[in-house]
Structures are given as structure tokens and as C-alpha cells.
Specification:
Rossmann fold; Retinol dehydrogenase 13; SDR_fam
């Protein structure tokens, strides 16, 4: 079901977390299809190696790398400012980057680290790129979530608290926020040519997702991943299907897993709550007057 022969010649795609794991596989797949691909992550060395590898394997030289640290709102703004100044269009935004097992602390922006890396950074990135996505329509936003979102809980008065949530709870909350953000995006941009859908990569082998974990919990998690995980190449195909399949052009507000529409979180259909999430998120990332197109 993931196979599609569709080309992306003349299209521009951004893949966050594109230097390794499923982000790398997704970027490589999009490159095979002829897209200009911008891979983004915080490690310059990994980015250069990934860019060179994608160029070599696909024969597509139109691959560029840009530093993006979702744990820094300044880094996100620098990335979007440069992208808007240098790119004429943006057809696909793959919000893939995320992390598990981060330390329970505040960032330099005063936000919970897990929430910022897994949600707030991506919210700001997407918000600032939306005018470019809209002017490039039809365009697609593809947001990575996880099964943990089904046990997530969002309390806008306490979502940046330290010492309140376990690692699993913090991850679940951040993934739920991503899912509801995607649902609200779909509603706000209905009939604009900009679509927003989520994907769950399930459990994936040979990625860096467990790098922040330590000790026995990491060893047990790694064993579980090795036994039941799917190849990262398969997830790359799943993302590419959402990005390139012509049948997906007008589909928005859906949740996908294994290239099939999947059951979404019930809160994704609660419009009042997703609107609250949108407004609260804008406040958290300090959207300025100059940045605020949503007025």
C-alpha cells in the first residue's frame, strides 16, 4: 500500500530529523523522486554526512542541510528566516524530529525540554513557514506522532512543569499536542490547498530514538525494538507515500499508520480544545506582532 511511483520534480521538501533514522530514509525517498530536499537537525557533522550519502545514493545533487535545534526557539526562528529568504516555495514539510528520555529540565526559553523538542519547536517552525506553504499550495504538512499520545494529558497551566511528569508521561503529552495541533491545522487551512496529517512510525529499528535513555530501561527497550520493530526503510516509504501520492492531495486531518488511515485520538475532534491548544501554544512560543499572520 505504500508504493507510489509519483515524482516530485520541482518540489521542495523539508525533513526535520533528516540526518538519521526514519528522517534520513524519508529524505532519501523524496530525493529519489526528484525533490529538492532540505534536511534539518542540530548536528552539523551528521547533516553533512547524510547530505553526501543521499546525493551519492540517489544521484540527486539538489540536497541541502541546515542546522535546526528544536530545543531553541532562536534556532527555529533563524532556520525559518533563512528558509523564507532563500526558498521560493515549500511543498512538503515533514515534522519528523523528536526524542525520548530527555532530562526533566527547562530549556533556555523556560520551557519543559521534552515538550519543546517534541512539540513547541515544531509548532513555531510550522507556524512561521505556513505563509510559504500556503503560497506554494497544494502543499502538505506531515506530522510525526506516536502511540503514546493515547495516554497523553494536556493541562495548559502545567504543561511546562518540571518534576511533575515521568519520561513516558512527558513524551505522551508532547505527542498528543502534536496530534491535536495537526488536527487544528487541518481545520484552519481547509480549502486552502494546505493539508495536515499525522503518521505513527510504530516501533522502528536502527534509529537514534533511544540514545537519551540509560541503563536497564534502555537495554530492555532496545531488545523490544529489535524483536518487534519494523525496518526504518519501510517507515521512510510510509512518509513518502503521504508526501507524494496524488490520492493524498486533498486528504487532511487524518491519522496514518502502516500507510493506512488509523484511529485518531478522540480529542482531535474536539474543536474547542484544539483551538485552546493553538492559542496557548502561540503564547508559549511568543509569536510577535510581525510573525503573527493569524489575526
Amino acid at each position: 500500500m505504500c508504493d507510489t511511483q509519483s515524482r516530485l520534480d520541482g518540489k521542495v521538501a523539508i525533513v526535520t530529523g533528516g540526518s538519521s533514522g526514519i528522517g534520513f530514509e524519508a529524505a532519501k525517498n523524496l530525493a529519489y523522486r526528484g525533490a529538492r530536499v532540505i534536511i534539518a537537525s542540530r548536528n552539523t557533522t551528521k547533516l553533512i554526512k547524510a547530505r553526501n550519502r543521499i546525493q551519492s545514493v540517489t544521484g540527486n545533487k539538489n540536497i541541502v542541510h541546515r542546522v535546526l535545534d528544536l530545543g531553541s526557539l532562536k534556532s527555529v526562528r533563524n532556520f525559518t528566516d533563512f528558509t523564507i529568504k532563500t526558498e521560493d516555495r515549500l511543498d512538503v514539510l515533514v515534522n519528523n524530529a523528536g526524542a525520548l528520555g530527555l532530562s526533566d529540565r527547562l530549556t533556555e526559553d523556560g520551557l519543559n525540554l521534552t515538550m519543546q523538542v517534541n512539540y513547541f519547536g515544531t509548532f513555531l517552525l510550522t507556524y512561521l513557514l505556513l505563509p510559504l506553504l500556503k503560497s506554494s499550495a497544494p502543499s502538505r504538512i506531515i506530522n510525526g506522532v506516536a502511540v503514546a499520545m493515547y495516554i497523553g494529558h494536556l493541562d495548559f497551566d502545567h504543561w511546562n512543569d518540571v518534576g511533575r511528569y515521568t519520561t513516558v508521561q512527558a513524551t505522551a503529552n508532547s505527542k498528543l499536542a502534536m496530534d491535536l495541533f495537526s488536527a487544528e491545522l487541518s481545520r484552519r487551512f481547509k480549502d486552502s490547498g494546505v493539508t495536515s496529517n499525522t503518521f505513527d512510525p510504530y516501533i522502528t529499528k536502527d534509529t537514534d530514538i533511544l540514545n537519551n535513555m540509560e541503563g536497564l530501561s534502555k537495554n530492555i527497550s532496545q531488545l523490544f525494538v529489535d524483536i518487534v520493530g519494523q525496518p526504518k526503510e519501510d517507515v521512510g516509504k510510509q512518509i513518502a507515500m503521504l508526501a507524494a501520492d496524488p490520492d493524498m492531495e486533498n486528504i487532511s486531518g487524518k491519522h496514518y499508520k502502516f500507510c493506512r488511515e488509523w484511529i485518531n485520538h478522540w480529542l482531535a475532534y474536539e474543536e474547542d480544545f484544539t483551538k485552546q491548544l493553538w492559542d496557548a501554544s502561540k503564547q508559549v512560543v511568543n509569536i510577535t506582532v510581525d510573525e503573527d499572520w493569524d489575526v
